[in-house]
Design a protein that fits this description.
- The longest helix is centred in the middle third of the chain and has 29 residues.
- The protein starts with a helix and ends in a 13-residue tail after the last strand.
- Strands 1-2 form a two-stranded antiparallel ribbon. It has a two-stranded antiparallel ribbon with strand order 3-4.
- It is mainly alpha-helical.
- It is elongated, with a radius of gyration of 27 Å.
- It is built from twelve helices and four strands, in the order ααααααααββααααββ.
- Helix 9 packs antiparallel against helix 10.
- 58% of the residues lie in helices and 5% in strands.
Length: 298
Amino acid sequence: MKSRGSFERKFGKYAIRNLSLVLIICYAFGYLFEMIYPNFLHYLYLNPYEIVFHGQVWRLFTWIVVPPSSFDFFTLIMLYFYYSIGTTLERTWGTYRYNVYIFSGALFTILGAFLLLGYTLIFQKDVMAAPAIAEGYFMLVSAMFSTYYVNLSIFLAFAATFPNMQVLLFFFIPIKVKVMGIIYGAILIYQFIVGYGEGAEVLTVANRFVIAASLMNFIVFFFTSRGKIHMTPRQVKRRTEFKREVKKTSNITKHKCAICGRTEETNPELEFRFCSKCQGNYEYCEEHLFTHTHVKLQ
């Protein structure tokens, strides 16, 4: 079985840098659609019923554009907050691991949507009794499958990585991030258990699927990274500086022709060999290996 490091070496070059900014740009398009033509967002929701029974496969991707909340001043503050903590996590974990975390949250959300469809088909036959009822139900619950809980999982991961960092609650109350993480966790557990109360059992079931699916990436992250995720800001700085130095040294060429100065970086098509007749470590490209004058030390 390949290790995570081997996967990172193979697929790390495809990781999207500054992914938090990319998500915010997607929200910007979503808010634009909401202002120009609000009903258009209904065609972008992650609706498993429409995907399976009407072939609307674009919904597997377009739900990322749907904003997690209505647009107002506090939304701008929250987006900036999530951008800040997301960027910090990307610098701490690395671009590849941060990409894996975000995209796994999205994949778990998609999986949760289809599991809800399967559950409804088997255990809630009254909902599926008529196409009109089913379409109305899934139009309602599909709005729940948004990036809201994926964003929340970013905060929970931040709280697990930097538990003792302080933030200003309501701009003036200093509080440790781990305390806020515990509070959010308790709220989620309460929402999962209580749901929407009596008379709204079908919505409660859907809400449980949403919460469980969207936060599965954090659950996997937490149990696979225990004891290895806590880093102080000084450690983050040292790690960043170390990676910068490694990148510098990795650019040093390993092969260089003593005659023409070409290297494997400038001319990757060339082969380089050391000359056994030269005294000293002299390496030549294939064009000068047999034509150079041998070096004799006095």
